[in-house]
Write a structure and sequence with these properties.
29% strand; seven-stranded mixed β-sheet; 2 domains; 8 helices; purine biosynthesis (chains A, B, C, D); alpha/beta; Rossmann fold; homotetramer; globular; 13 strands; 285 residues
């Protein structure tokens, strides 16, 4: 699971066709690359193929040549590939509102090296979490939401994302619905944490909904955002038991841990190139 | 948790009033009863009080006198009480259709003494599970459902329940919706197992719904039935992780274990007098 | 996870060498076999390579030719391979004593097709579980243990295993220590369920040990047997929370469910060819 | 579970005697106190009684009179009681070495009010975590351990504990064995987190031990310290599944979350007066 510092990751997906595994593994072998972990999955209902390989390359491997040759090989399979060199750290923007637990948790994990990412900015519609971001040395942008001016605010958010070349946006309890346009711009690269076991309790105040319903389990769902509120492809979910003695504020308190763990797990999967979109579902290898 | 063979159980609930705990514990003390486990909970939002006490009574205690005196004491509190003598085994009717896993599990637990109940009948709209019931020496009633004659079929079901003085009906994967009338007749004494984490995936084929949604957890919910389909008060819920490689049939297979364990747990709580109705929720002490 | 009825399984392990993945996948591709799931793992500390592939073969594939050619290809890698054709059901012997829960659970899972195995015999040092075996139509052998005659009894056990060509022996709460000789004869093909979280609470009465220690979790461990009592390679472990109110008999009751689930899971992994020995540990792909 | 700001907590334990519940509940009723949660447990093997009550007191209750009268009432039962007024926050000293995850987690929970305690000092044998303590505004004491001078160092630790009237010492990954004398001075009020599922993998480097053993679950144990290393009464335990792909550094990473959650849970139980010593075990009400 942990990788040596010289480990590359190659992922790919394509329609289901004979030879998809072989085209990858044969190429790696010919290049003198040593496969340390390999996982492929063929979805027989969707007829889609997914593969993720970790490998060590021989000294002197030319990344450019490797990419060029690989592209040639996989072309007949309509395969999309992604190559991640050793030590690569994706740039990430985190969006928050007032609740700090997920931000606190993500920045800690970044700091100790558990989440290999570079958080280039924290963006919020409230000023509250600036000290926390600053303590970690990360730029904080306060973009307040004026009642009639969501498009302008979202334009500023998008400007931060694009100017920093962030490849991932984490909505770490950002309590605003994104516009359809922003959702579309961030498709496949924005992960939200919703504080319920979706599809149960979509929308506002899910813990209060859960209390009223009298459920005996509460959970959290990390998912890619899309145009449908709380309906994007699910990456992972966490859960804990509760009982009659949990008032809404107890569910909220218990939920904080689940949200942190579930979001961090999903982000980790993304950074390790384990997550693939598969229509409105995900494959996690 | 396990009880000595001379242990009684006393439960009660009432509006929240000063003195509700004391009226019970003082009475028990005066009667020379030794409390071995005591749990009370006051719901400060619903303003309802719930209590469950296990105790050992002195030799020669008159149950009739105990009940009469207790009734007098608690009268000022509008308290409803239930007293369960040592060794009492509730009579139970189990309803099934074709899937046998929950029935198989419940009858095994009864046989080894883990569920202290007397299953007086198994009722089904299909003949398939008769051999299983017979092997355990339990009468099996096949009441087929004719398209236009649900009322007649349900009348036969109710006749079995009432003539046997069953105090609990277990819907162990009974795949028919009960009429409003039967639901109402069985209110508070019929437990259903639904194969999803309610309120997610109500209704038919929840595992197929779960597959299409791409959830990463599946579960089961044991609940009292009421007039709203899959909406009755929840007693307990179970859950397991799944991934992209679980096709619908894999969810069904995985779900069988969760359903068995969740239903058996809920039935155990009921038999041990741990479950209280609290409007559309439950308190489990 | 579920497989179509025409799915083959190929597993292999070898020292870590460049080309191990490629030799398998290239051969499969050349044979026209379509890989539906592929998982390989290279243990960088042990320098051992493990691979498991599920694939669909083209019509008319000759198994004999496939095996012969595969053997030639992998020879340079000191690779041991195992090929499992579609629909193959391993023969299994189950050993029990008096506790019936694991046997009851395994035979049920066999009957509904969840464990694709043929139980050819149940062997016991006590006569108690004969009716259960008979109900499932499985031969039952009562081989009592005479104080000074363990070798003779074990010879009879081994005779059943070998004459039936059983490739797996399941010790489903068989409460006798096997001799070093029998352990050695069954190495890598006998799975035991121990009712504790090994390495905690080895030996007799683990639930009583757990009670005295005051642990807040109890569990079960499914492992291959070897010459060291309760020290063989672990396949999987299950766990549940407990509290101060669990007396030893409550731990035993709670443990039954964990034991059944943990043993069934381990047996399922074995039948699906997911388990590899890796010195005194296992790899489960 | 959450309490209104005017809630008191009363706990008590005594030998098992008729009248122990009644003496508490009758007294509370006479004082006009309203019980909101009540839990008692009688250990029938140890013959010890444990009780925990949350209640709201009438306006104007004199704490001194309440305590005096209570003491008189319970005297015949050899009962030890502890009364915790609303809003009481125990003083706590946290001991650490170099690993910061537990400290980071505990201070965060204190700051957001989830752990109602006042951390009066952080003590360490290393200087590394001073910035973290300082950021939270908490005094940090660096007491290095000189090879032959453990008694002097421990005297300084004890001086901090006693001069601050700390009633709880948390060993949040303090990587030194305490002397028998210090253990004895802190008995019943020092909680340690050990990074294994005790009694498995006592002592140093438990994750490396777990890796070598090939376990499929790793966990953490929060326990009171006593003179036997890693043998004190267990308060709570946490666990997660792992597999063959987890190298020791992966177990360490995964373990951090379990350690944080398990320790925070145990500290929460302590602060809420839920934990009772019961010989070498605990009762958690």
């Amino acid at each position: 699971m942990s990788r040596t510092p010289d480990t590359w990751i190659l992922t790919a997906h394509s329609p289901s066709l004979l030879g998809t595994v072989d085209v990858i593994t044969r190429f790696l072998c010919e290049q003198g690359c040593y496969v340390t972990e390999h996982h492929s999955f063929d979805d027989r209902l969707a007829c889609r193929f997914f593969i993720r390989v970790e490998f060590r390359a021989p000294a002197g491997l030319s990344e450019a040549d490797f990419r060029a040759e690989l592209a040639k090989r996989v072309a007949p399979f309509s395969m999309e590939t992604e190559l991640t060199p050793p030590g690569y750290r994706p740039k990430v923007v985190i969006m928050v509102s007032k609740a700090d637990h997920c931000l606190h948790d993500l920045l800690y994990r970044q700091r100790i090296g558990q989440l290999p990412m570079d958080v280039v900015a924290v963006v919020s519609n409230h000023p509250d979490l600036e000290p926390l971001a600053r303590w970690h040395g990360i730029p904080f942008h306060h973009f307040p939401l004026e009642p009639l001016d969501k498009p302008a605010q979202e334009a500023r958010v998008l400007e931060v994302v694009e100017s920093s070349s962030a490849e991932l946006v984490i909505l770490a309890r950002y309590m605003q619905v994104l516009s359809a346009e922003l959702c579309s711009r961030l498709e496949g690269r924005a992960i939200n944490i919703h504080h319920s076991l979706l599809p149960g309790f979509k929308g506002a105040k899910p813990y209060h909904q859960a209390y009223l319903k009298g459920v005996k389990l509460v959970g959290a769902t990390a998912h890619f955002i899309n145009n449908d509120l709380d309906e994007g492809p699910i990456i992972t979910q966490g859960v804990e038991t509760v009982d009659h003695a949990h008032y809404p504020e107890d569910l909220i308190a218990k939920g904080r841990d689940i949200e942190c763990l579930t979001l961090a797990k999903a982000v980790g999967y993304f950074l390790e190139r384990r997550v693939f979109l598969n229509a409105n579902r995900t494959v996690v290898l």
